[in-house]
Structures are given as structure tokens and as C-alpha cells.
Amino acid sequence: MSLPPEKASELKQIIHNHLLKMDIHGKIREVLAETVRDDQGPARRSLSEADFLRALQRRGIIDDMMKDLHFTQEAGTEAETGSPTKPATHFVDKDITHLKKTNIDPSRRCLYLQVLGGKAFLEHLQEPEPLPGQVCSTFTLYLHFRNQRFRSKPVPCACEPDLKEGFLLEIHRDGIGESGKMADATSMLSVCDPVHFVLIKTDTSSETMLVSSYFLDWRTVLSSPSCKTCFAVELMGVGSESKVPAGVLTVSLELYPPLPEILSADIISTQQSLERQRTAEKERLFLVYAKQWWREFLEIRPSHQTKLVKIFAQDENGVNRPVCSYVRVLRAGRLLESPRQAARFVSLLAHEKAPVVGGGGKQEQWCTLMAFLCRGKGDCEDHATLLCSLLLGFGLDAYVCVGTKAKGVPHAWVLTRGTDGSITFWESLTAHRYLHRPIDPDAPPLAPQPKPSYPYRTVGCVFNHQTFLANCQPSDAVELCVFDFQNQSRWKAMSEEALKSVCAPGSTTSLPPLPPLCSSSLDPPAASNQLELEMRYLVSEHRKDLDLATVWDDHLSYLLSSALSAYELERCTGVSCGNEEFQDAVRRAVPDGHTFKGFPIHFLHRNARRAFATCLRSPFCEEIVCCRGDHVRLAVRVRVFVYPENACAVWIMFACKYRSVL
């Protein structure tokens, strides 16, 4: 029976995933070592492949592997049943998004963008060819164009990576532009939104790294014969390497349906030149205004020179942009239900400072939202600007604060003002909320003063998408600060008109477009089950090394679910509930004279080995995993809670019960 190439590659991936799940390499090594030991007698002979296969069969490894594979019979084709076809087995990589065929509307103009391969990724010049089944670093290309987002399949990192994908982009979509009629050449010429490419490298331990962020002006296709063109795109590095080429992609563009009459190349270059001039003039005028505003701010008080007043910030490409342009009103549709859930989502994106080569302090790098979401991690400024954007989308009066934490460490967090004048701080890295009550420095010495619970020490400025305010109070200490933004003696505001000229959506062509959030492609029950099976295996193996038997109590494992659900609910809402039912259920499940111990822990990743190694560093967890005693029963429960952008909160709880022997 011959299989089409795509089915054959899918079957190989399924078998590879299944073998990894069973830790087949470890088992083969054990059997090989044992077989070689047995053959070390006086009449030893060379070990043949047949001998080794017999040893695997004797140990039951081949039978175990085959019985776990469940093949399902397809009931009919997708066209017949009207539903997507089922995968061949249950062991399909859940992170793969299955593409659906779509009919192209001939009355709508589309851009077919193909990536035909990469070359000159010199950092990977010495990288060996990956062996079949070997885990290796991968490149993934992400695209954003006018509210549409796409992702390529991951390919092994190489000097010439096999990045070959096609993406169908709609020129007018979701009410952007005149979607009711066919876009003509003139209307498309005025569409200055670029195609944003973000290239991410994922290493063997699932750590992501931003390789390049590139904005492609696609309008050259409007002057190409038959509305088709092909060219090389040089991707530059990021941060301190933004002037160093990272690699080259070959890109093909095709307009469908083709234009009856193409534009001349001069018209396109003139339009691009006019847009650049208009943007440069607006940015020049804003810079002149910002310098004048800064001089006035310094004249108020000499100590203002040392305050953290951040007007501009560099993005991943080394471009200086006003900080207000990093915040936009972002609505998450049905993906997030409340401001607190939005805060929880942002806190699940990992915190990592921009990488810097050598010493010399913190590398200054704020990320565009697309790069931050694709990478899945960023610095505190990236988290704060995203949370502020989401809170603005939920209708709150939100601002990003720039200041310091303990020991003078620069930090950014979010502030919201209630209609009653109350001030709430939101820590974007943890989703914690703090109510701010200023201390009155003129109060009598014995008068009761509020005790601050927040970790912030000073605040230099606050801003959102249309406001920038610098703190001109005598002290920039947060505990003394009054957040009365209308009071010009406390806060010096920038002109809203000046900010709008360079920060409002569509005001300049240099502003990166705002991407929508994407729903998660993870299946929570399947991801939870997979991780729980891996944790059980690791616990059993660890206990085997200590010559301890492992007996699992499935009922006790199931009871732990309600505790993990309550923990996540508390992180999301700040309200604790469901603990009484969990305690009652455990009391009923643990007989008299027995002891129960439990240890919950929270992770932002789904790597079982990394998580287990972290757990064992806790003496409480090690005590449970290595529990000795009479009638010991172990339990482990994993819950994966998914959020947009494949962010996930992973809760693991280890537990044991045993008979107390005095």
C-alpha cells in the first residue's frame, strides 16, 4: 500500500511522538546494556540484530508499544461527511494547526505570498544535518497583515533552512477598506500597511528567541507583469545586532485576480517617497516639540534631571519611537472575558530581559506587540504595555507607569483610575493588584498612615495611547505621590495633539500595525493527560532508582483536580473558593490512622523533565515523591489551563497517603 507523501510524513511524526512518549531510547539502552552483560561469558559471540530484537520482545517492549496505538477507521471523506477527517491515530502532535481548504472569493482581491526558502543564515553554517527522529532547534516564520495572522511549519535550523510556505492574504477584510467591491490599483496603492515577518528560533529545550522582525512593503507587485514578482528579502538581526544581517528569504508575491492594467513603477516609488517624507516631517516636528517640553520640565526643578521620564524607547529593530505608540486600545473579542483574566493572561507570558552580549548593564529594548506575542516572552515594559492596551479595551482608564522598584531597579507597571478617584496598581508580571493610598507628609506624627503593600518605590512618568504625564511633585516616591492628573502643579502633560500626530493609528507609516490576539491551538484535557502520564513515569523511575515500589491511587489523583481548579480561579479573580469541598473529599479518601501530604506547584511551560527537576528541589515535594512507609499510595494530578497565544498555566499537585507507624 503506497501513501501520499503528506500522509507518510504525518505517520512518521505520529510514530516519533509515540516513541518519545514511551521514552523508547532509554528502554533500548537498558536492554542493550543488559544483553551485552549477559553475553560477556567465556563463549561470548558478537551480538546480532536478531538477538537484540528477541531481547526487546522478551522484555515486552515491542508489545507495549503496539498495544498503545489505536487506529481509527475513517467513516468517509471530509466532503461526504461535512466534518474534518479524524487523524490516523490518537498520537497526533496537538500543536499542529490543521489547515482547512477555503474557497477564494473571485470578487475580492487577494495577495498570495510564498516563501520559497532561506539562505545565508550564517550562524547555523556549522550545524550538522539533523538525524531522523532527532530533536533539533527549529525556525518558525510568523506573518501579520491587516488583522490576519499566519504561522509556518517549524523547520530545522540550517544555513539554508527549508522555509517553504504559501499564505493567502486578503487586501480588504473585516470592514478594513471597501470590502463590498473589488479593490482597484489606486485603492491598493493607498494601503500602506506592511506585511510583518517575525522569525522565531525554538531550541531543543523549547526556549524561544527572536531572530528577526521585518516589515515588507508588498505594493511592488502592483507594477509587476501579470501581477507576479519574486525577490530576496534580507532579514536583519534584533537589538544590538539590528545592523547585522541574520539571513535571506526568497519571497514571491502574486495578486489574484490580476489587475487588468498594472501601475508604473514610478507611481509606486513616488507614493512610497511621499509617505516617507510625510512621516519624517511629523517625527521631526514631534522631536522639536519634545525637546522644548523637556527643557521646560527641567526648569521647574533641577532634580528632575534624575527622574525616570521616558519619552522615547527603542524597539527590536533599534528604531526610536514615542512610548505612547507602544500602547493601543486592544479588544480581545471572546478570548478574554474580564480585566482580571487579561492580567492573568499577560502574567503567563514569561519574563526575560533583552539578551546582551558581554557585560555593561541592561539592554534597552521594547518589542512590537507582534514580536512579543510570537516569542511568548519579554521584559516588564512589554508586559505593561500589553496589559495597559487590554485594560483600555475593557473600558478602564489605564496608564503605564515608569519608575523603580527596591534598590533602584527600573520597572514598568500599570495604573487604573476609578471614577471615584481610587488608584489601583496592576503588576503585569504577576497579575497582583494593589490599592494605592498616599501618605500625608503633613499629618501629625502619631496620626495613622496607610502602609504600602506594593513593591514600587518611585514613579517618573505615566502614559497611555493618547496621554503622557511627567511627575513634577517635590518627591517622586510612590507612597507620597498623588495621582491627580488634572493638577498641572503635580503632573506636566504633553500636548495631546502633538502625541496624536505620531502615535494615533494610521498617523505615520512607521507605526507597526496592531495584531489581533489568536486563540490557543492546545487541547487542555489532552495536554493535561499527556503531561500527567509523563510525570507518573518520571516519579516511578525516580523511585525505582531508590529501590522503592510505586503504587498509584487513581481516586486520590482525581480528587486533586478540584484543588488545582480553585488555585487557578484564585489567580484569575483574587477570590478563593472550593477549598472546603476539597478538604472534605480528602478526609473521606484517607482512612483513619493514615497521613496525607500534598504539594501543589505552578509552571508556565509543559516540559515534564524540567518541571520534575524543579519540583525535586523542594524538600516538601521530595518528601512526597520519595515517601517510605507502610501502605504508601501516591497520586499526581496535572491541569493545563489555556489562554490566548498558546499561553498556559500548568498546575501540578503531588500527594501521598500512608499508614502512620509510631
UniProtKB/TrEMBL annotation:
GO cellular component: centriole
One Pfam assignment: CEP76_C
Keyword annotations: Cytoplasm, Cytoskeleton
Centrosomal protein of 76 kDa C-terminal domain span: 524-659
This protein's record includes keyword Transit peptide: no
Ranges where the CEP76 N-terminal domain occurs: 10-69
Residue ranges of every copy of the CEP76/DRC7 peptidase-like domain listed in the record: 364-494
Domain CEP76 C2, first and last residues per copy: 103-259
Gene Ontology BP terms: regulation of centriole replication
Record's subcellular location: Cytoplasm, Cytoskeleton, Microtubule organizing center, Centrosome, Centriole
Family designation: Belongs to the CEP76 family.
Function: Centrosomal protein involved in regulation of centriole duplication. Required to limit centriole duplication to once per cell cycle by preventing centriole reduplication.
Protein name: Centrosomal protein of 76 kDa
Lineage per the UniProt record: Eukaryota, Metazoa, Chordata, Craniata, Vertebrata
